[in-house]
Write a structure and sequence with these properties.
Helices cover about 40% and strands about 15% of the residues. Helix 18 crosses helix 21 (about 675-690) and helix 20 runs parallel beside helix 25. Belongs to the peptidase M16 family.
């Protein structure tokens, strides 16, 4: 029963409000179209032959109540399927085809074949010519990479299609195409020649320190088991040795009906979905005899060990670019469980036990412990081991002190039971989670539901409706005793063997024997991280100020959204939606974003992103904020944008007032606790050396700085710069910014408008008048680097065969250009498709080249079109030639009608899907209380994305892609291959 996915972001007058669309016909038409898609009429489906309503296969041998919304079928050839009606998003059907074969099913000389076949399956098959899959799905409205994709893990290969505009004809065509892909892919030498370079490019682009850490971790923790050396990406040697005959042998061995599960969920008659599956797969027969599942092995204790918790293999990995870290695991054999309600009660008790320890570990880190982060998590890993993982990130050089600190907290949890108060705190957290899942069950996306079935099949368990999970949890409250949680804790930290790996940037800092000795050393139980019971109530918190009623409250002319304006200048939008029960988003935009900072303030920008929220408010520090949020659903995300700061939280109807209070209090009565600042300083400095380990790191570190013509505000601060910052300096920079500039509050979702406006009156309406944004900040702009025929070259310290190329062109910014910005997204996608054809499909030199468009709306500059790819060093010049060629051709000739339709149809379908949620409209309308362009351009949205003509694209390409000439960046290895 996948309980948490296995326990599982100046209204000056009434006239200004009236600016807002008085007749939003296009928006209404879009909404009507979505509704029409949701109610699409389909012919009555013939009765499928193999539906088994009285014998749902996933619920066999379990007492978990059957979720009646699912229909299950099983064919004589062994193929199983599950189908379900779901209208989120409307008009879409999500299809998953799971093959019970991953990298653990490979022989030693087949490593990487499961993943290679995934690629070949998309290359060519019975009903799809070579290279036709991507454009075919695009013409059906599906976007490559998001709507059509696949993944290979150690235990399964899953093909994924989220089909928009799922008419009966489109569904029939899609199921036909998918059947040809799964049953009869063209595993020819020509296709192998085409796809092998792409797979090797994917492997090359992921190589480096992180891959070495992953490989070393598997090697140590799963020593002696196939999982220790069976990465899905395979090895260069085995991949290059692949032949059509060897690949076909793997396919024939595992791609069989009895190894296949098909899931189809969406806005269609489930019986139609079942019939389509049966029509295309019922006559499928496997080749040869079915093969038994491979032996995945089991964790084993050292042969001569008598310790009840023996320490097995330990190792040290030296990676100069990465921070220190220790991972150890208490391993137990994986066993096929009897997935019943009692088993899941045990999982819930385990979850409470882990949550208590993790809260204690975090409390010690916050208080200035010797580690930056630490955590405990139980996982069943690839049907190979049942493991409890402990991860430690030391704060400094003294790794042993950090390890001892973490182990002492765990030792305390093993020494005596937790308190009732600690248990109740975690129970209250889970109660909110499960109640929220019940409230929002009708909002579950079909893709999510389909993935849940696939994951349950993979771990050989069942699925449960949200009501069942809540009922199980509610019905076991008397079992959540200190003694029960204590017993669970002891089980979680007992096992067959314990293994450990330490990552360090310094050679000879420690040996494997040093780590083994540290793991075997007894530690004193430390109870100083046990969190004492303390009651904090919102009712006891000080008021923000004197409540004020809005001086304006009026319809905005879009749906039933209301605009409000308070005497202190705060504006807001309130929208009650009826199609998203239990879901509310609160977004607060204030101040001037990046414009607020000077060059000398720049190091405090990332510190603010990490530490501003944690610094607290009023009398509430981090621990108090956590405590007051217990039993509520509250969010506290913070981000910095080009022209504004944003606070955002996902909440629920009963917690809206508290969410508004927290955000308003952050502006009105900020706290300046130094600990979060010092912790953020350590985290930022620790990760800096890793940036030059590969091209991606250089991009993450330097690209925005370079695209803003080396503006210091967009630079990643060095450890030396971070070291110069102080908590006092942090307050000096950030305190005035919390007081400056206009405030706009948006509350969209399942709300009572009157109660929400009343809560706004008590919080944001009660704020003191805001300080004006300084003229210097208002006048700060950004610039774009000059074009360069010779690329700027930056080197990295990573693999000799890794490089990256970037080419960019300046565009613009500002809400007045909204229609043009949307058409630039179409242009960028056209460019991206051509670049994919040129450097992925054409040469195999890059796995995922891409082109994107950025157009800030709160500032009048800063936009750009960006093309990039990871490549081998010798292919970098080719990238610039191809990108320039594409840009010039689009400017000279534009796209043809079919090429353009392959972009605009996915955009059309995407808009039809996303506009049913309030989050989409929040993104489109933010800023509208002061900027009429946000609303006046709303009507043209669908047209801008889907009715753009080849001539318009040609003109935009000439305006932006060839007039500037383009700025080029090459990221090359310091050490080149010989």
């Amino acid at each position: 029963m996948t309980i948490f996915s296995r326990i599982a972001r100046n209204l000056a007058s009434v006239a200004t409000l009236g600016l807002l669309l008085s007749s939003p016909t296009a928006v209404q038409a879009q909404d009507a179209a979505a509704a029409s898609a949701a109610k699409q009429s389909v012919p009555t489906a013939p009765q499928p032959r193999y539906l088994k309503p009285d014998d749902p296969w996933i619920y066999r041998k379990t007492d978990i109540p059957v979720d009646k919304e699912w229909l299950f079928g099983e064919m004589p050839n062994g193929l199983r399927y599950a189908v379900r009606r779901n209208g989120v998003p409307p008009g879409q059907v999500s299809i998953r085809i799971r093959i019970d074969a991953g990298s653990l099913y490979e022989k030693a000389d087949e490593r990487g074949y499961a993943h290679l076949i995934e690629h070949l399956t998309f290359r060519q098959s019975k009903y799809l010519e070579s290279g036709a899959a991507i454009p075919t799905w695009q013409r059906l409205g599906a976007t490559f990479g998001s709507d059509t994709n696949a993944e290979t893990t150690p235990t399964q290969t899953v093909y994924k299609l989220d089909l928009p505009n799922a008419t009966p004809d489109h569904l029939a065509e899609s199921m036909k195409l998918l059947s040809g892909m799964i049953r009869e892919p063209a595993l020819s030498q020509a296709n192998l020649n085409a796809d092998l370079p792409i797979v090797l490019a994917e492997r090359r682009e992921n190589a480096g320190p992180n891959m070495r850490v992953a490989e070393a971790t598997r090697s140590v923790l799963f020593d002696g088991q196939p999982l220790s050396d069976r990465s899905p990406i395979g090895t260069v040697k085995t991949l290059k040795a692949a032949t059509p005959q060897k690949v076909r042998a793997f396919h024939d061995r595992w791609y069989r009906p009895e190894n296949t599960v098909i899931v189809a969920v969406g806005d269609a008659d489930p019986k139609l979905l079942a019939k389509l599956i049966e029509d295309r797969f019922a006559d499928w027969k496997g080749k040869g005899k079915p093969q038994p599942q491979p032996d995945f092995g089991t964790p084993k204790a050292p042969a001569d060990g008598k310790d009840p918790n023996p320490v097995g293999k330990t190792d040290i990995l030296v990676e100069p670019s990465l921070p220190r870290g220790i991972t150890y695991a208490i391993l137990r054999p994986w066993e096929q469980v009897n997935d019943n309600i009692e088993y899941n009660r045990g999982l819930l008790i385990d979850a409470i036990a882990q949550a208590i320890i993790n809260r204690r570990l975090e409390a010690r880190a916050r208080a200035g412990g010797s580690y930056l982060f630490a955590g405990v998590e139980q996982q069943d890993v690839s049907r190979s081991a049942d493991a409890t993982f402990v991860t430690v990130t030391p704060l400094g050089d003294d790794w042993k002190a950090a390890l001892d600190d973490v182990r002492s907290v765990i030792a305390d949890a093993l020494a005596e039971p937790p308190t009732k108060e600690e248990i109740q705190r975690e129970v209250d957290e889970y109660r909110v989670v499960f109640a929220n899942q019940v409230e929002q069950r009708d909002l579950q996306a079909g893709a999510q539901l389909a993935d849940t079935i696939v994951n349950a099949v993979d771990i050989r368990e069942a699925v449960a409706a949200p009501e069942v999970v809540q009922q199980v949890f509610t019905g076991m409250q008397d079992r959540l005793t200190p003694e029960a949680v204590f017993e669970s804790t002891k089980r979680l930290f007992s096992g067959t063997v314990t293994r450990a790996l330490m990552l360090t940037p310094k050679a000879q800092e420690a040996t494997a024997e040093d780590l083994r000795s540290a793991m075997k050393e007894k530690v004193e139980a430390s109870g100083d991280s046990r969190i004492a019971a303390q009651t904090i109530s919102f009712a006891d918190l000080p008021p923000i100020g004197t409540p004020q009623q809005p001086e304006i409250r009026a319809p905005m002319g879009v749906f039933n959204i209301e605009g409000v304006k308070f005497p202190n200048g705060v504006t807001g939008m309130v929208w009650r939606t009826t199609n998203e029960p239990g879901r509310v988003t609160v977004r607060v935009r204030f101040g001037s974003g990046y414009r607020a900072f000077t060059a000398k303030d720049a190091p405090y920008i990332p510190l603010g992103e990490m530490a501003l929220v944690g610094s607290g408010l009023g009398d509430l520090g981090e621990e108090e904020l956590d405590r007051i949020s217990t039993g509520r659903k509250l969010g506290f995300d913070f981000r910095i944008e080009d022209g504004t700061f944003v606070l955002e939280g996902r909440t629920r109807p009963q917690d809206v007032a508290d969410q508004l209070y927290l955000f308003a209090a952050k502006l009105a009565m900020p706290r300046w606790n130094p600990n979060p600042v010092n912790r953020a300083k350590a985290a930022i400095s620790m990760q800096y050396n890793g940036f030059d380990a590969n091209p991606t790191g250089i991009i993450n570190r330097d690209l925005e700085w370079l695209l803003h013509d080396k503006d210091p505000r967009f630079a990643t601060p060095t450890p030396e710069q971070i070291d110069q910052t102080t908590p006092e300096g942090f307050r000096k920079v950030w305190e005035p910014l919390l007081k400056q500039g206009p405030v706009e509050v948006m509350v969209f979702g399942d709300i009572d408008p009157d109660q929400t406006v009343a809560a706004l009156s008590r919080t944001f309406g009660a704020l003191d008048p805001r300080d004006p944004i300084p003229a210097a900040a208002e006048q700060r702009t950004t610039s774009f680097p000059a074009s360069n025929d010779k690329p700027l070259v930056i080197t990295h310290q990573g693999e000799a065969d890794q490089a990256a190329a970037v080419m960019a062109w300046p565009t613009g910014g500002g809400s007045a250009g909204l229609p043009e910005s949307r058409k630039l997204e179409v242009l960028s996608q056209l460019f991206s498709n051509r670049l994919l054809d040129a450097v992925r499909e054409g040469t195999g030199s890059s796995y995922a080249p891409s082109v994107s468009s950025n157009w800030p709306l709160d500032t009048d500059s800063g936009g750009y079109i960006l093309a990039m790819a990871q490549l081998p060093p010798e292919a970098v010049p080719v990238f610039f030639i191809e990108a320039q060629k594409i840009a010039e051709d689009l400017a000279a000739n534009g796209p043809d009608a079919d090429e353009l339709a392959r972009v605009t149809e996915p955009f059309r379908q995407l808009l039809m899907r996303v506009q049913t949620g309030h989050a989409f409209w929040m993104d489109e309308l933010e800023g509208a209380t002061r900027d009429p362009n946000r609303l006046s351009n709303l009507n043209s949205m669908m047209t801008d994305y889907t009715k753009v003509t080849p001539e318009e694209i040609k003109a935009l390409a000439a305006k932006y892609l060839t007039s500037h000439g383009g700025w080029r960046l090459a990221i090359m290895p310091e050490k080149r291959s010989q």
